[in-house]
Amino acid sequence: MKVILKEDINNLGQAGEVVEVKRGYAVNYLLRQQLAVRANEINLNELKTQQKAIEAKRAKNLASAQEKADNIRDKEFTIKVRTGEAGRLFGSVTTIQIAEALAEAGYEVDRRDLSLSDSIKQIGTYRVNIKLHPEVDVDFTICVEDEDEQKQKALLAAKEAKEEKEAAEAAAAKEAADAAEVEKQIEEAVAETEETETTEE
C-alpha cells in the first residue's frame, strides 16, 4: 500500500516521500498515528502544492538533528543500578533506561532509535548509537554504576585489578612466544650451517 509520509520515520523515509508498506502497518500504525496519508490522487496533488513547505521542514528537521547530534556526540551519561556478585545486574539495562538518562540531561529521544551492539548486564562503560534522523546518527557513552557508592568503588577496583592481571599475562605470553620464535630461528640457522659444512666435506 502506498502512503505519503507526514513525518520523518527512521528506516522508512522523510516527510513528503511516497513509500510502499504493508497494508496492516499503514492502516494500524501510520494512518492511525497520523504519520502518513493515503497516496491517492487528491493527496498527491496536494503534495505537489506543498512541496516548498515540505522541503523547508525537511531542512529544519535535519538541522535540528545535526545540532542535537553535536551536543550528544561522545558525551557520557550515567545510569545507577543495583548489582549482585561481581557487578552483575539483576536483568539488563534497557533502551528505556538509556532514554531516561538522556532526558534527565535535557535530550529527549525516542528509545526505538537507540541501538546497542550487546546487552548490558554488568557495570562498566558502553557505546550506544542513536539515529536522530534518516541522515544523522551519533555515538555516545553510558556509564553503568552501582547505586551503592562504596560497592561501586570496590567493583571498579576489582575490575581494574583483573584487567591489569590479564594484561600482564598477555604480555608474558607474548614474551614467551617471541623467545620461542628466536630460539627456533637460532636452531634453524645452526642446522643450516651444519648441513652446509657436511656438504662441503
List the uncertain runs: none
Give the helices and strands as they follow along the chain: EEHEHHEEHEEEEH
Strand order of the largest sheet: 4-9-8-6
**CATH-defined topology of the largest domain:** Ribosomal Protein L9, domain 2
- Going by CATH, the homologous superfamily of the largest domain would be Ribosomal protein L9, C-terminal domain
Taking Cα atoms only, what radius of gyration do you get, to the nearest Å?
29 Å
Gross geometry: elongated
The counted number of beta strands is 9
Report the top-level CATH class of the largest domain: Alpha Beta
Strand content: 15-25%
Helicity range = 40-55%
Q: Residue-averaged pLDDT, rounded? A: 84
The main β sheet shows up as:
4 strands, mixed
Would you kindly provide a written description of the structure presented here, covering whatever features stand out?
This protein is α+β, with helices and mostly antiparallel strands. It folds into 2 domains: 2-71, Ribosomal Protein L9, domain 1, CATH 3.40.5; 72-147, Roll (Ribosomal Protein L9, domain 2), CATH 3.10.430. It has helices spanning 23-31, 41-49, 51-72, 95-104, 149-200, and strands spanning 2-5, 18-20, 36-38, 76-81, 88-93, 114-116, 120-122, 124-133, 136-146. The strands form 3 sheets. Strands 4-9-8-6 form a 4-stranded mixed beta sheet, sandwiched between helices. Strands 2-1-3 form a 3-stranded antiparallel beta sheet, with helices on both faces. A hairpin with a 2-residue loop joins strand 8 (124-133) and strand 9 (136-146). The chain is elongated, with a radius of gyration of 29 Å. The mean pLDDT is 84.
